[in-house]
């Protein structure tokens, strides 16, 4: 019964590893009361019952004293390990499950260079306004609506906004952005972009490379959506046809998603080597330990696997999270997995959705371990070969430092000595004046 309820609807969560939504309203919410106090009490009771760390939830609080369910959740979360539990609307969740977004389609990295805030475009979605307008990976956002990035961020901080949607509403121009951009050749351009609803594939840039030792397949994978299975089928059909014997899986931009989809992908990668083996162990809180279960690999996917594949190279960054990390950890007992890039985000835990009043609560409910009962990588999975991303080369470009290193390893060469970080064509920093910027108190999103 539990396995069916947990895995029957395995859909996307941009925040990471989840196993779907389960409409199990209780209390006054079940009777149709959607007042703030009723919603708060619902969230409180769900945390007491289903949270992975129920011992951290106070046994008797006045839930009505909180201004919203989100405020209550943020106040009660176990901050040592939980920065992931969240509440979203059913409409947003369903759209994301179908890879539909209302946005302009820019993913950025926030850096600090010589004391100034810098936003570098890491990726633009296909079919998005940004991609169609010619914004590409490596471009730098210089200004937004006439403000420097530092000015823009300062205003967000002062107004205490926690999402781009609220930022746009608060700034008085919710329907369009005006960006001043700089290319990698230092030329500048200005572009006005309006958020629209668009859909996108999840498998991108499938390519093949011949090294001195083997033929290597490569593709980037953006999120573990339930819509990915047909894309997997097409990609692995081409990989088999090209007789690739190694795979480079680019997960540096993948924040996670459906565990079921992760299982489908992992099984296609390893094939008969994981037939009837354990993909993941689900472990709940002590008060729910009788619900723990073993989740096997998907035997029905074995026939579509790459039969000769025994080495997987995974390209990673701090944005590689949740279901992406599960791929690495779950395959380690069965095939050689080499991690190239940066340390992953550190999320060996997952969530189940609970619907109420047009919203869905996703609290952390379980830990995940592999067939050797290995997990607990809250500090992230360290790379086998550490390589800095330069944000300058397109995904699939063999000059991209992460891809180039994986190709080098697949040819039997050693991991190169780490080089100082060199973003684009600028001089590499040698001191602490250049660093990855930690998120400020409310500036939490990296996607327009």
Question: How is the topology of this model organized?
Answer:
Elements: H1 2-7, E1 18-22, H2 27-30, H3 36-50, H4 69-76, E2 86-89, H5 90-97, E3 100-103, E4 106-113, E5 116-124, H6 129-132, E6 140-144, E7 147-148, H7 149-159, H8 164-171, E8 177-182, E9 188-193, E10 196-199, E11 203-210, E12 215-221, H9 229-241, E13 246-250, H10 259-270, E14 278-283, E15 293-296, E16 311-316, H11 323-331, E17 336-341, E18 349-356, E19 359-362, E20 364-369, E21 385-386, H12 401-410, E22 435-436
Parallel strand pairs: 1-18, 12-13, 13-16, 16-17, 17-21
Antiparallel strand pairs: 2-19, 3-10, 4-5, 4-22, 5-6, 6-7, 6-8, 8-9, 11-12, 14-15, 14-20, 18-19, 18-20
Helix pairs in contact: 3-4, 10-11
Notes on the structure:
The chain has helices at residues 2-7, 27-30, 36-50, 69-76, 90-97, 129-132, 149-159, 164-171, 229-241, 259-270, 323-331, 401-410, and strands at residues 18-22, 86-89, 100-103, 106-113, 116-124, 140-144, 147-148, 177-182, 188-193, 196-199, 203-210, 215-221, 246-250, 278-283, 293-296, 311-316, 336-341, 349-356, 359-362, 364-369, 385-386, 435-436. It is α+β, with helices and mostly antiparallel strands. Strands 1, 2, 14, 15, 18, 19 and 20 form a seven-stranded mixed β-sheet that branches. Strands 4, 5, 6, 7, 8, 9 and 22 form a seven-stranded antiparallel β-sheet that branches. It has a six-stranded mixed β-sheet with strand order 11-12-13-16-17-21, with helices on both faces. The longest helix has 15 residues, at 36-50.
């Amino acid at each position: 019964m539990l396995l069916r309820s947990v895995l029957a609807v395995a859909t996307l969560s941009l925040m990471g590893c989840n196993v779907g939504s389960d409409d199990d309203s209780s209390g006054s919410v079940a009777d149709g009361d959607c007042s703030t106090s009723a919603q708060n009490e619902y969230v409180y009771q769900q945390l007491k019952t289903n949270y992975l760390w129920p011992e951290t939830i106070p046994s008797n609080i006045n839930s009505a004293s909180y201004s919203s369910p989100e405020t209550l959740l943020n106040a009660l979360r176990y901050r040592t390990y939980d920065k992931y539990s969240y509440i979203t609307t059913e409409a947003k969740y369903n759209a994301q499950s179908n890879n539909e977004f209302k946005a302009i389609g820019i993913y950025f990295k926030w850096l600090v260079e010589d004391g100034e805030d810098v936003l570098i475009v890491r990726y633009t979605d296909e079919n998005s306004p940004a991609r169609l307008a010619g914004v590409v990976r490596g471009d730098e956002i210089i200004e937004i609506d006439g403000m420097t990035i530092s000015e823009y961020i300062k205003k967000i901080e002062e107004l205490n906004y926690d999402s781009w949607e609220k930022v746009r509403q608060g700034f008085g121009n919710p329907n369009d952005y005006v960006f001043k951009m700089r290319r990698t050749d230092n030329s500048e351009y200005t572009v006005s972009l309006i958020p629209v609803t668009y859909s996108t594939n999840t498998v991108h840039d499938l390519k093949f490379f011949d090294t001195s030792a083997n033929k290597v397949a490569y593709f980037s994978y953006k999120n573990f959506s339930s819509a990915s299975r047909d894309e997997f089928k097409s990609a692995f059909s081409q990989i088999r046809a090209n007789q690739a014997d190694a795979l480079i899986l680019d997960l540096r931009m993948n924040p996670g998603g459906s565990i079921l989809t992760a299982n489908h992908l992992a099984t296609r990668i390893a094939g008969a080597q994981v037939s009837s083996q354990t993909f993941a162990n689900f472990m709940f809180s002590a008060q729910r330990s009788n619900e723990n279960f073993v989740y096997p690999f998907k035997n029905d996917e074995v026939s579509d696997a790459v039969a000769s594949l025994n080495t997987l190279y995974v390209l990673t960054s701090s944005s590689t999270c949740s279901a992406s990390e599960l791929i690495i950890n779950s395959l380690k007992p069965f095939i050689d997995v080499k991690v190239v890039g940066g340390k992953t985000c550190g999320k060996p835990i997952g969530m189940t959705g609970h619907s109420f009043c047009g919203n869905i609560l996703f609290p952390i409910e379980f830990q995940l371990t592999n067939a050797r009962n290995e997990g607990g990588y809250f500090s992230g999975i360290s790379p086998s070969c550490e390589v800095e991303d330069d944000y300058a080369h397109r995904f699939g470009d063999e000059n991209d430092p992460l891809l180039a290193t994986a190709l080098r390893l697949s040819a039997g060469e050693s991991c190169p000595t780490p080089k100082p970080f060199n973003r684009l064509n600028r001089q590499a920093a040698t001191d602490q004046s250049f660093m990855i910027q930690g998120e400020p108190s409310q500036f939490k999103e990296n996607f327009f």
